[in-house]
Every structure is written in structure tokens, then in C-alpha cells.
Amino acid sequence: MAFEAAVDSRDITPVFPPYPSLWMGGYGWDPRGNHGAVARSLRAQCLVIWDDGTPKVLLRADLISIPRDVNQFIRDTLEDEGLVARNDLMMLASHTHSGACFGDTRPNPYLLMNLNGEDVDAVNGTANIIIDELLDLVRTTLELDRTDVTLSYTEGSANIGYNRSVGDQVLDTVPILRVSTLDEELFAVVFGAAAHPVARGEDEVFDADYPGVASELIESITGVPALFVQGACGDQNAHDPHGDAMVVTLGNKLGQEVVDQLDTADFSPVTGPISTAMVEIDLPLHVDLDDPDVVDELRAKFEARRNSSNPIAVGWRHADLMLKLIDSEGLPTHVPMPIQRWRFAGLTILGLAHEPLSAYDLKLKKVFNGNLWVAGYANECEAYVADNTTLRAGGYEAGWGDGDDGIAGDGAWTMSYAWPSPLKFSGSRQAAPGTTERIVIDACVNLLNT
User: Which domain of life is it from (predicted)?
Assistant: First the structure.
């Protein structure tokens, strides 16, 4: 079955002017800003696949993450304009740690880098320009001439990272979607991997990191656009030592694997119709913040942390913000998590919001019969979503430490993302009903089976 397709791209590398902010995202806890140095441009790319005249839009960008309010705004805007149905738009961030600080919610720039109000306003100004570019990119791609295409899928393998958390699983799979014209000429390539784009390290240079190098290599050899999709890499880091040389090494390794598969692999057909669906689940926090006694206990902990912390430390900033939320009755009690499914005949793509850990990729593939592509950082990203084993162990990815699972850990993801406590988990090895892993897996399985 043939589809129609169009593809386009846009440079979203901040330059002053017109971008008011060159603050960077990805690392904490001190201010970090670009001063004009660019190793590799940051790009947004849009692939539209028309299935029986209905557009399915894949929009990916070299961004650290997409905040919830940005996801909702872009989705609402395109739907209100009658361009794309909500379930038919999948937005993906590469999670490069050498890109722009994007938005003022989660991560919170004040918590992340101690930015003042004027700097946060500038961050929002840059975010607004990028949002306009993303919207215009979708509109422009939808207006391009359409090409009749067929789709096919295969998987390669490339070791570009390691597990930095409590597990030893490493995701080496390289999913590849080939988009070809009816005369078998290559039209575009969508490919993926699962490793934090931190190969460059914490400097002040804008860089698409190893995904950018991989895309450039594929495009230089094939002559067609190559779109990178990040996987469930919450606990997967790019190999050390960090620096530009490692960016090139890992990017070339990943890109060459894609090129080799395009030349030699047997691709299985991917046909229509395309069925899209999206659900939103609520992930509970580990403490019941609907209970006034629990809130009072948490207040005492944050007061103690604030009183014992240096006012310039992130622990003080986070505690102060949480106390203000408690006083205003604005303390969050759960983490919303959209999950999106695109089902073809021959391939299912599952887009998980936030920073899912590798266990979700492995567990879902064990219970799904067929080609399953698990993408992370899909549509919005405001938390780490760890499996029960990691949550029980504590640490950065779990969001708590120092023996207290009832409060955000000092220096953990729960601080930068402005949450008061970690996600709910079971004390036993098995994820119990109503806990994070069980809620996510059950929702995914239900979506995959409907």
C-alpha cells in the first residue's frame, strides 16, 4: 500500500539577536549560557505521511525536552487551524544537552540554573521563537508537493552507551524506517537509538550531539533527510570521555550502522491503514499529598532543608519553592503522562512522554508480538519515569536519596523538574497495582491491544 509523504527542516539554533536568550538546558545547578559558539546546528524536522488523504505528522527537534504547556499549545493550535488531529501529531525531542533552555516550567530555570526573573523572561522569548518555527515548519511541510511512497522497517545494532543507573541492561537496537518512492529510490530515513546525548559534555557550545553527526553522515551518503528519534534512555548515557571527539565517534558509528542496514538488510513491509491513539495517565507521587497530615510532615522536612541549606544552593531554592506551593495550595499530587500509539501493519510506534528508563523498552517488547519501536521524550517531558527496581533503590533517576523516599532527593531529577517527592513504587520486587511501573505498563499494553 502506498502512502504520500513530504519532509522539511528548519534551523532552530538560537542566535542573538533575534533570540533574546542563549541560556542552555541539560545540566545543573549553575548558570550555563552559550556565547555564539556552534559545533553543529540544532534542527527541527517534519515528516508528514498521508494515509488515505489524512496527514500523520512526525515533528522532531534538537531540544532538551518539550514542556507540557508547549505540547498543549502546539497541539491545540494545529488542531484549531484544522491541520492535524490531536492523535495524528507526534512530537519528539532528541534530548541534546547542548541546546537551548526551553520554557520556564519543567525543568524550572530558576531551580536548574538560579536564573532571575529577567533571564527567565528571555528564556521564554527564545522558546516563543522556537515554537513559532515549529508551527511554521508543520504548516509549510503540509503545503509541500506530496510524493507517493512505501515504507519498510528493520533493526540494526550499535553500542554507543552504557547503563548509568542500578541495572545492567544496555539498549543497542537501532530501529530504521525506510521511506522510498514507488521506483525504490530512497526518499527519507527515520532512525533511532537510546542514549543520553551528553557526548559533548558540559561546555557552552550549541551542538546536536551524536544524533546530529549521525544524521549528517546518513544524509551525506544517501542524499535524503534523516530524522533521529530518541529511545527510552533515562538510564542510558553516551560513552565517555565527553568531548567533541566522542560526539563524532558515536555519531559516525550510529550513522554508519544505518547506512549499512540500508545497503544490505532485508526490510519488512510497513503498510496501512495507520491507526493512531493517545491516552493520558496520572502517575501518583510516593506520598499522599491529599492528606493534610502528610503535607504538614513534608512542610517540616522542607523547612528543615531550607534552614540548613546555603541560599545559593539548589536544595534551598527547591525547598523554598515547595513551601510557597504548599502555602498557596498549589502542590502537585501526580505527574500527567501522555502515551501515544501509531499502529501500521508491520510496525507499531509507541511514544512515551518524559524520560522513561530502559526497562520499559525491554518489558514492553517482551509482551508485544511484532515490531515495536519505543520512543521516549515524546510530546512532553517533565519527569523521569523509572521502573520499580530503580525506584526502590533510590538515587538520581529514582528522585530520592538519603534514606527518605518521602521527599525529593537533594540534586535528583525531582528538584530540576520541580516535584516534591519521587513517583510511587512498591516496597517489594514486583510493581503493585497503583504504582508507577504497573500503571505505565498496563496503560501501554492496553493501548497496544486496542
Answer: Bacteria
Neighbours of 41 (CB within 10 A): 15
Question: How far apart are alpha carbons 49 and 148 in whole angstroms?
Answer: 10
Alpha carbon 343 to chain centroid distance?
20
Beta strand 24-25 with 99-100 is antiparallel
3-state secondary structure of 279: strand
For the four alpha carbons of 375, 379, 383 and 387, in that order, the dihedral sign comes to negative
Quote the cell numbers at residue 164.
548509568
For the stretch 265-297, pLDDT in tens is 999 999 999 999 999 999 999 999 999 999 999
Q: The pTM is what?
A: 0.98
Strand partners, 179: 151, 188
Confidence of residue 388 (pLDDT cuts 50, 70, 90): very high
**Do residues 65 and 376 touch, judged by C-beta distance below 8 A?**
no
Confidence grade of residue 1 (pLDDT, cut at 50, 70, 90) = low
With a CB cutoff of 8 Å and minimum separation 6, the contacts of 307 are none
How many CA atoms are closer than 13 Å to the CA of 24, on its beta-carbon side?
27
Q: Is 186 exposed, middle or buried (0-12, 13-18, 19+ CB in 10 A)?
A: middle
One DSSP character per residue, 1-48 reads --EEEEEEEEE----TTT-S--BEES--SS--B--S-BSS--EEEEEE
Q: At what angle do helices 68-80 and 117-143 cross, to 10 degrees?
A: 40
286 SS3 class: coil
Which residues, including other chains, have CB under 8 Å from residue 310's CB and lie 6 or more apart?
A: 316
Tell which residue, 27, 33, 74, has the closest CA to residue 242: 27
Neighbours of 109 (CB within 10 A): 24
pLDDT at 399: 98
Neighbours of 59 (CB within 10 A): 25
The Cα–Cα gap between 155 and 175 comes to 4
Nearest to 73 by CA among 154, 138, 164: 138
